[in-house]
Specification:
Oligomer: single chain
Distance between the termini: 5 Å
Bound molecules: zinc ion
Shape: elongated
CATH class: Mainly Beta
Strand content: 35-45%
Order of helices and strands: EEHEEHHEEEE
Number of domains: 1
Helix content: 25-40%
CATH architecture: Sandwich
Radius of gyration: 16 Å
Strand order of the largest sheet: 1-8-3-5-6
């Protein structure tokens, strides 16, 4: 069995961004040499997500609007967590959008359904954050 580990680093310009990381995961898969197995991709921070959905700009705006309705960033004072920080909304948004994804690897490729793409969801950006890619298989 092969095992391969890699981290991606992000430092977004904005507090919230959705970034398509599918090409990065495909590159890691190629480097791993794994043809049959699984890839795990997870955010290594509790204010960011990794999730699978469509790479469509209207949908991405819908995610932003929907998450802001569920857990608005401001006023910061509305959250207990923000006594020492200002990112309670980011923790809540991350919980909704999820920590990680697992994708099957078949014949050396990500075995996606139609339109599936992997995204990094940043909810408290403008600082260095990491994503873990772990590939297991043969
Ligand atoms: Zn916090």
């Amino acid at each position: 069995m092969r095992s391969y580990r890699q981290t991606l680093v992000f430092n977004t310009d904005r507090r919230r961004e959705l970034i398509n990381i599918t090409p990065d995961v495909e590159k890691a898969l190629k480097e791993s040499g794994v043809k049959e197995g699984f890839v795990l991709v997870n955010a290594m921070h509790i204010s960011a997500s990794v999730f699978i959905n469509d790479d469509e700009s209207g949908l991405h705006q819908d995610f932003e609007d929907w998450l802001e309705k569920l857990a608005p960033e401001k006023p910061h004072s509305q959250y207990y967590h923000n006594k020492a920080e200002d990112n309670a909304d980011a923790h809540l948004k991350r919980s909704i959008m999820g920590r990680e994804v697992v994708v099957a690897i078949t014949e050396g490729a990500l075995d996606f359904g139609p339109w599936e793409q992997i995204f990094y969801g940043e909810f408290d950006g403008k600082r260095r954050k990491r994503v873990l890619i772990k590939i297991i298989g043969e």
